[in-house]
Amino acid sequence: MFLMTRSAKKKQQQAMEMRNQMQPGTGVRTIGGMYATVKEVGDDTVLLEVAPGVHAVYAKNAIGAVLEDEEYNRIVHGDTDSGTEGDVTSGGLPAVPDDASSLVGPDDAAGTAKPDLTKKTDADDAAPKDGKTDGEADAK
């Protein structure tokens, strides 16, 4: 029991030290997974720039990680230090395309097989099945 509380307290201390390292211009990730840049640090709050010109006030406890500049730029701006481009990023994760056109294979792009997305007419739905209609007393 003593070891469990000691390790939990140690983790809390490390998280507090990490949050105290925040300075204006530092890249952070919130516990909700949002990436932002620190603009101002208060006692219990932090002002984050979530997009150019868009600022939001967060509690310091909502900061999940303080990121190194290289990691923040790689994640947010897509910067790579190696300069190589391909289907896999330097982190081993597949690159996400900007649009869906690159997800379609060459056979699909030619339009050979398109699904029928037209709406069925009321006549198709009105045809009785097996000569029986809904609501008849002798229908089983």
Description:
The chain has 140 residues and is an alpha+beta fold. It contains 4 helices and 5 strands; from the N terminus they run H-E-E-E-E-E-H-H-H. A hairpin with a 2-residue loop joins strand 3 (45-51) and strand 4. It starts with a helix and ends in a 14-residue tail after the last helix. The chain is elongated, with a radius of gyration of 28 Å. A 5-stranded antiparallel sheet has the order 4-3-2-1-5. The longest helix has 19 residues, at 2-20. 26% of the residues lie in helices and 21% in strands.
H/E topology pattern = HEEEEEHHH
Helix content percent band: 25-40%
Poorly predicted regions are 83-87
Tell me the quaternary state: single chain
**Overall pLDDT, averaged?**
75
Radius of gyration: 28 Å
Overall outline: elongated
- Strands of the largest sheet, in order across it? 4-3-2-1-5
Number of strands: 5
Estimate what percentage of residues fall within beta strands.
15-25%
The biggest sheet amounts to: 5 strands, antiparallel
Tell me the structural class. Answer: alpha+beta
Number of helices: 4
